[in-house]
Amino acid sequence: DDTKKKSDEYIYYSEMFQLELSSDESYYSILRLYDTSLSSVEIPDTIDDIPVKKILSHKDSNNFASWNNCVTIRIGKNVEYIGSDPNNEGILNGGSLGDNFLSSLSKAAAIVVDEANPVYASKDGVLYNKDFTILIKYPNNKVDSTESFNVIIPNTVKSLYHKAFYYNTKITKVVFGSNIEEIGNLVFAGCEKLTTVTFNNKLKTIGQSAFKDCDLTSITLPESVESLGDLCFAYNDNLDYCYIAENCKSFGKDIFADVADNFTIVTTTSNLPILEEVEALKFYKKRSLD
After folding, report:
1. Element (H, E) at 229
2. 87-111, pLDDT tens digit by residue?
3. What is the rounded CA–CA span in Å between residue 66 and residue 42?
4. How far apart are CA 114 and CA 120, in angstroms?
5. Which of 40, 79, 88, 224 is the least buried, fewest Cβ under 10 Å from its Cβ?
6. Rounded distance between C-alpha atoms, residue 27 and residue 228, angstroms
């Protein structure tokens, strides 16, 4: 209705965001931020009593480019999906949490979520799912109180979501909480200053390109790890050692592409033939644990 659409509230938000009303007029989606100079943005709960349920990036080349100058983002209580698929109805309705969570925002220091939101939550400026078992996005410009750029992941976290730390150029060390089982795709890709990772003993899966283009020098994988995705440790120029235990039986391609010339891999005799099929390992030293 034209009267509603032209209310003062609608005009205010329509000048700040590109808005789209769902076909059944039951909710709004925010498609982009118009004022790209804003450093602090608050996603409203409602506009004219209609809930704001989606933050979409499909018109920003899937990377939320219009939000690049945001330092603080506050997410309202009704947002159920953040991502690039306008047809995804969110995890409460059979969809997913989303994708590309503000992944290109180099200035973002904090993402804050309304406590009443049923899907997302936040603590210390970090975006999680509601029960804090999935770390979704660690802002690229988040600085802790010590400014040490060391990250300690909470024990509640079981999974690091795809691109959770993507191209964070500040962090140098990561310590895993005790319950992490999965590292998604591209989680630490492009973290060019990341030199040290302390894994936990429940980790099972490391996704594609998870640590691509970092600065790791030595990796000791826990006995629990079962699978390594394509390119997961590729392009770590100074990586010269990796230990892989016998439980790991699934190996992607080019796991160790373009690591140090003196790279040594230590694993079981049974794993060596499997690893030798990975082209990137054929020039490197291999040592058996048996």
Report:
1. none
2. 999 999 999 999 988 876 888 999 9
3. 14
4. 8
5. 40
6. 41
